[in-house]
Amino acid sequence: MSKRGYDDEGFDDTSKRQKVDAAPSKVLHVRNLPQYTTEAELIALCSPYGTVVRILLLHNSQQGFIQMNSVEAASNLLTRYSIAPAVIRGKSVYFQYSSRPEISAQSASQPDSQQQASTILLVTVLNQKVPVTMEHFHQIFKPYGEVQKIVIFSKNNQFKALVQMGTLDSAINAKTFLEGKDMFQNCCHLRLAFSSLSELKVSQNGPKARDFTVTDPSWSAVGLLMGGPNGYFGGYDQPPPPSHSRGGPHSGGSVLLASNLPDGMTTDQIFTLFGVYGDVIRIKILYNKRDTALIQFVNSQHARSAQSQLNRVPIYGRDIAVSFSKNSEIQMSRPSDDPDVAKLTKDFSRSASHRFKSRGPNDSKGVNPPSPVLHVSNISDSISEADLRHLFGSEQQSPLVQVFNANTKRQAFICMDSVGEAVLALVRCHNYKLADKYLRVSFSHKDPASIKESGTMDSY
Question: 290 in helix, strand or coil?
Answer without folding.
Answer: coil
